[in-house]
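Ticket 4471: requesting a sanity check on a complex prediction with magnesium ion. Repro inputs:
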Amino acid sequence: MTKILAVVSQKGGVGKTTTSVNLAASIAALEMRTLLIVIDPQCGVSSSFNFTSR
Ligand SMILES: Nc1ncnc2c1ncn2[C@@H]1O[C@H](COP(=O)(O)OP(=O)(O)O)[C@@H](O)[C@H]1O
Ligand SMILES: [Mg+2]
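Returned structure tokens:
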């Protein structure tokens, strides 16, 4: 069964990125197919996974 979780707040610095990355990593560690989508121009999640923009 597919589940969709959303981590949303207009306020910055409240832990959205940290929560999202660790939640996704924890679910993936349970060997469940996991898709993490981030709509954030700061690209904090990309750097969490060591992706860099060119
Ligand atoms: N549960 C927590 N306890 C303590 N510090 C936290 C926690 N969650 C996030 N932080 C810290 O708070 C700061 C902002 O978190 P971040 O996830 O970047 O927020 P956002 O994505 O909402 O801007 C970071 O320095 C992060 O390490
Ligand atoms: Mg963020």
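Notes from triage: Residues 16-17, 40, 42, 44 surround magnesium ion (ligand 2) (CB under 6 Å). Leaving this open until the requester confirms.
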